[in-house]
Amino acid sequence: MAEVAEIGTPHPGADAKNIFIRDDKKHNYYLITVKGDKRVDLKSFREKNATRPLSFASENDLMSIMGLIPGAVTPFGLLNDDERRVQFFIDKEFDMEGALIGVHPNDNTATIWLKVSDLLKIIEEHGNRVHIMEI
Fold first, then answer.
1. How far apart are CA 60 and CA 2, in angstroms?
2. How far apart are CA 29 and CA 15, in angstroms?
3. Residue 97: what pLDDT?
4. Which pTM was predicted?
5. Would the pLDDT of 2 be above 60?
6. Rounded average pLDDT over 32-54
7. Domain span at residue 42?
8. In sequence order, which residues have a C-beta less than 8 Å from that of residue 102 and are 6 or more positions away?
9. Tell me, what CATH number does 71's domain have?
10. How many folded domains does the chain comprise?
11. Rounded to whole angstroms, how far apart are CA atoms 119 and 94?
């Protein structure tokens, strides 16, 4: 995200940061998306969602479930989740009428901007669970 800030983007308030995590039993996977400058408190996330202990998913899990490499985590990776194992959590700061979000198109050498509502519709139509909440 620091590199993105240095480069500058056409919609800096729409830049997203994505983290891919799992529970300690590797039964539940979560993709969390927040504004680019926001920190994610996994302990708070765990308490709010009554999950088991959480940690970052491995590179192998990232590739086998979402078809992505580290540094290229994006909500579009959910379209590769054929088993719909990953629940998508997006920070409610993005939940505004007409709001934009900037995400990678499954490759971290580019960013695309689209309406948050369109992104959520794509993910919901694919079948992954979507949660909009304060993160």
1. 25
2. 23
3. 81
4. 0.90
5. no
6. 95
7. 2-133
8. 9, 11, 14, 15, 16, 111, 112, 113
9. 3.90.960.10
10. 1
11. 11
